[in-house]
């Protein structure tokens, strides 16, 4: 199931929104930071429904990034393995 990040833009805590999410069978809360930010696994139709039901919340896809410092192997690998001659 895809993962999404939900962020509460309002300054007020919204425990009823969290309770609503917990009661949805197609939504699983993976991680939570207070009442402001959540990482959830959810079916796409449930997320579309939440976008309309929680107007004070931003809903976005979870993003993955490679760790810095290790170049991707597809960009030429390490210089000692290079067959190219340099001037």
**Total DSSP helices:** 2
State which percent range the strand residues make up: 25-35%
Question: Mean pLDDT score, rounded?
Answer: 82
Instruction: List unreliable stretches of 5+ residues.
Output: none
- CATH architectural designation of the domain at 3-61: 2-Layer Sandwich
Q: What does the model show?
A:
The protein has 87 residues and is an alpha+beta fold. It has a domain at 3-61: Alpha-Beta Plaits (2-Layer Sandwich), CATH 3.30.70. Helix content is 22%, strand content 28%. It has a 4-stranded antiparallel β-sheet. A hairpin with a 3-residue loop joins strand 2 and strand 3 (37-42). The longest helix is centred in the middle third of the chain and has 10 residues, at 44-53. The chain is globular and about 45 Å long.
Write the layout of secondary structure elements.
Blueprint: E1 3-8, H1 15-23, E2 27-33, E3 37-42, H2 44-53, E4 57-61
Antiparallel strand pairs: 1-3, 1-4, 2-3
Features:
87 residues, alpha+beta, Alpha-Beta Plaits, 4-stranded antiparallel sheet, 2 helices, 4 strands, 28% strand
């Amino acid at each position: 199931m895809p993962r999404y990040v939900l962020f509460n833009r309002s300054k007020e805590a919204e425990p009823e929104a969290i309770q609503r999410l917990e009661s949805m069978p197609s939504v699983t809360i993976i991680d939570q930071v207070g009442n402001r930010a959540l990482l959830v696994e959810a079916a796409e139709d449930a997320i579309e429904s939440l976008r309309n039901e929680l107007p004070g919340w931003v809903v976005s896809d979870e993003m993955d990034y490679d760790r810095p410092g290790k170049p991707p192997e597809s960009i030429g690998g390490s210089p000692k393995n290079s067959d190219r001659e340099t001037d």
